[in-house]
Design goal:
By secondary structure, the chain is mainly alpha-helical. About 10% of the residues are buried. It contains 3 helices and 2 strands, in the order αααββ. Helix 1 (about 1-25) runs antiparallel to helix 2. It is elongated and about 75 Å long. It has a two-stranded antiparallel ribbon with strand order 1-2. It folds into 2 domains: about 1-80, no CATH class; about 85-119, no CATH class.
Length: about 120
Amino acid sequence: MVNKILFWSGFGLAVRFWQLGIEMRPFFSQPWAYPIYGCIGASFGYYLQGVDNNQMRYLKETRDRLLEKRRRRAEREGAPNIGTEYQKNQEGLFASPKVMVEKGEHIPDGTVERTQAAA
């Protein structure tokens, strides 16, 4: 969160320097304006962080709803697998979460991660 706020406050200060450079005015003739531009940039960064948090929350809720829907459908239809093999082996926001690790002598590498869907 802090990195976006710091970046955009620095961007606000850079805009002020750019503005004065275009006008060919001295940089420190009005030093009280720099905190204003920095605060405007910081508030924009804070706003963007909130937007990012809301979007990630929405995507997580959507993913959880989809996984729950897949699980219910699999239980209803009696299918042991949910999703394609590609989906089960991927990681990321839209992939099935990996929750179980199998260990045993019969497994070539020693451990295998299985998705909740494959369990």
